[in-house]
Known about the structure:
- By secondary structure, this protein is of the alpha/beta class.
- It has helices at about 45-55, 75-80, 85-105, 120-130, 160-165, 205-220, 230-245, 280-285, 285-295, 305-330, 340-360, 365-385, 390-410, 420-435, 435-450, 455-470, and strands spanning about 5, 10-15, 25-30, 60-65, 135, 140-145, 180-185, 200-205, 220-230, 250-260, 260, 305, 470-475, 480-485.
- It has 3 domains: about 5-260, HUPs (Rossmann fold, 3-Layer(aba) Sandwich); about 305-425; about 435-485.
- A 4-stranded parallel β-sheet has the order 4-3-9-10, sandwiched between helices. Strands 5-6-7-8 form a 4-stranded antiparallel β-sheet.
- Helix 15 (about 435-450) runs antiparallel to helix 16.
- The longest helix has 25 residues, at about 305-330.
Amino acid sequence: xxxxxxxxxxGKKEDxxxxxxxxxxxxxxGPTVYDLxxxxxFRGPVFFNLVRNWLEKSDYEVNYVYNYTDVDDxxxxxxxxxxxSSKEISEKYIQEFEKDFKTLGLRPHTHNxxxxxxxxxxxxxxxxxxxxxxxxKAEDGVYFDVKKFxxxxxxxxxxxEDLQAGYRIEQDLNKKSSVxxxxxxxxxxxxDAAWDSPWGKGRPxxxxxxxxxxxxxxxxxxxxxxxxxxxxxxxxxxxxxxSEGCSGSQYVKYWMHNNMLNFGDQKMSxxxxxxxxxxxxxxxxxxxxxxxxxxSAHYRSVLDFTETQINRTIHSLAKFYSALAxxxxxxxxxxxxxxxxxxxxxxxxxxEAGIQEALNDDFNTPEVMxxxxxxxxxxxxxxxxxxxxxxxMGAIAESFLAWMKTQGELMSLFQQEPEEYLLSLxxxxxxQKGLQRKDIDVLVEQRLRARADKNFEQADQIRDQLKExxxxxxxxxxxxxxxxxxxx
Length: 488
């Protein structure tokens, strides 16, 4: 089955056919590094990590570029506020981003170019646009002449006349038209980020940076360009104008855009004070919770990032890691294994086929999650039984562990050490319930003494008390254990 991708340009799903057989050139817009990145900024890295993984699983060689914008007004403003250089600000927050990225357990990109590394390429790019009469010099910089690019607005479905009518501010006398955008900005007094150019000392505009880095590394035409939905206009629209105006070739074959995060039906914004950095989220929760939550929703849908959703995610992850811990415990018994039952093997194959179909259908991750739940249910039915584990259960456990690791790796999920991670999740749930592990241990010990004294009425009362607290007690031939109820 061919991979289908929803192309923002056409507004529909299209069969994925790369420009060069067997190879994929992919560029995803990275962060402007002037502050800690928030949880919304990382939806793209998590999702496009999956895209790259699945393309490679589908036998494509992927060249994945994810850039750093280390020249920008926001960086200059932050540097002025802190009394340091713009380079110090950008380097500091690149390091912070990379710490968060590493914590998420995502695979490194093929290339992470910085704007400052491509200044000569940017200047040459603008010179070519100037030679093609698509760029002109004004009092404060060099601009792209939008009216000379006849296809402007084809990605965002906007037209120049409506855009001009929408400007409520006075016409900038430096520009021929209000819709023209900056390619090169002349340096202002006090700015420390400036480079010599044929037009004067200054720095590039935002849009030319991505066009240049993509061209320098991947060439004039690429297969996939990704980013947040908020970048469609003006950033990606302007990239198209620059790149296609310069090369005369199609810039991007497939445009992919992930949607935004909402916080209780509100968009994340500084004015509302609801921005949470990835650094803070990882300290308060952890990266596995974030990835599971992000991938539980389709990338083109708005995702409600609320405490309720986070708690549901914790309980869902706890169910999976409880099963993984059980499987590992069964495997530790060192028994001789029988062949995996045909029924369980069939369930794994059915789920794997479903995952493949879902990922080929525009990366339908909610459907992928449904297949994981199917396998979880079948495993629990086969292995959550009283008494000593059988050799058949051992075979199922071994197969389950291997399948979860392999399939989960595509999404960078389910790779944690099961017992340790389950303990951390259970502790989070206990904290939500206002319970402490030591108090539960006391009750479980009291119940054991009651059973030893044959006071079964008291033992049952304590079991009921624990059940009301959300604690499940298991009596086995090897002793009594307890775990947190994973249902909400």
